[in-house]
Amino acid sequence: MKHRIQTLLGLTTLLFFTGVLAQEAVIRKNMAERLPQLKTIDEVSKTGIPGMYELRVNGSEIYYTDAQANYLIEGNLIDTRAKRNLTEERVTKLTAVKFDDLPFKDAFTIVRGNGKRRVAVFEDPNCGYCKRFERDLQKIDNVTVYMFLYPILGADSNDKSKAIWCAKDQAKAWQDWMVRDLQISAAAADCDTAAITRNVALGRNHKITGTPTLIFIDGSRVPGAMDAKQVEKMLTDAKG
Q1: Looking at the predicted structure, is the pLDDT value of residue 7 above 90?
Q2: Full domain range(s) for residue 34
């Protein structure tokens, strides 16, 4: 009897997954035929709503559709009972950054005091909020800042980033421009600047859409300028 029950459970599980795969195939086929401009679908999965499926595209773009792919929904799925933005939570999870997995070779460091506390920052040299943030960051001691140049505001941002990256003392060149308002010589940009291109690709992949963006050692990410008191609190909280 026990063996029979296990066999039935196994068959039920097999039929379930076969049905799921068949439904996924229908969705992929119909979407490809009806919306060929839609990028390759990375994943099809069920949602908590009967008959609604999640489509994950281009790494972390989320759409929703029905079982036959007759409709495509773009927008946020809200759980009204729990008051949760399920789409936002999903994207946040997909674009999460593990601090120790960051490509630190593509950043330069600014060390103050013992440098024991660590934070990564993505900044554009032409970002006004970044300049305000950098001036406040001077008040933070015992920290290592991994500075990822992230020129997303235009061609001039890219030129300035290259000049800073190629400077003999990158940290000094950065702070001369951001904190002391000293001019940068773009002519100095005579080195391998592929790191900057990689930074932009990395940021786009993880949906870093604005500067400054801070990433702490616990993986928490904060977009926008923070004052010194807020940074201190985040550095302390991230220890856990």
Answers
A1: no
A2: 2-94
